[in-house]
Amino acid sequence: NENKEELFISEHPKSYLELVSTDWRPMIEIEFPKPRGKEAKESESVDIENFIAIKGIKALGNQLITEKVKNINSLEPLPYEPVIPEKTEDIEVVDEQAVESGTENKKSKDVEGGSADEPTLFD
Q: How far apart are CA 78 and CA 54, in angstroms?
């Protein structure tokens, strides 16, 4: 509805939008904090295009990570690769099959032992 305002971030005071990208195939890097007395977890790179599909406004989405995050950085996007449509002459036909049109006449009266849509022995 054009007249209805749709929220995609909850109105909770701690909710905020971390990153928006209009890149063709965006990439991000997730940095993790160093836990006390342990080695820091290595940063993770995520291809956002493969991580999540397009969703409707009511969808809950995908959770990127459950662990604590120190920082999310935008990386250089993956290169644009145009989709080249395959020419119909280049498509290999494996099995040809005739397709009938949906305008065939159907019998309206019932035939003994079957329905009006079933062919009889002499059709």
A: 18
pLDDT digits (tens, 9 = 90+) for 58-99: 777 778 888 898 999 999 999 888 888 877 776 677 777 776
* Cross-strand partners of 29: 45, 73
Structure tokens at 39: 């080695």
Q: What's the pTM value of the predicted model, to 2 decimals?
A: 0.53
How would you classify the pairing of strands 71-75 and 27-31?
Answer: antiparallel
**What is the C-alpha to C-alpha distance for residues 33 and 14, in angstroms, rounded to an integer?**
20
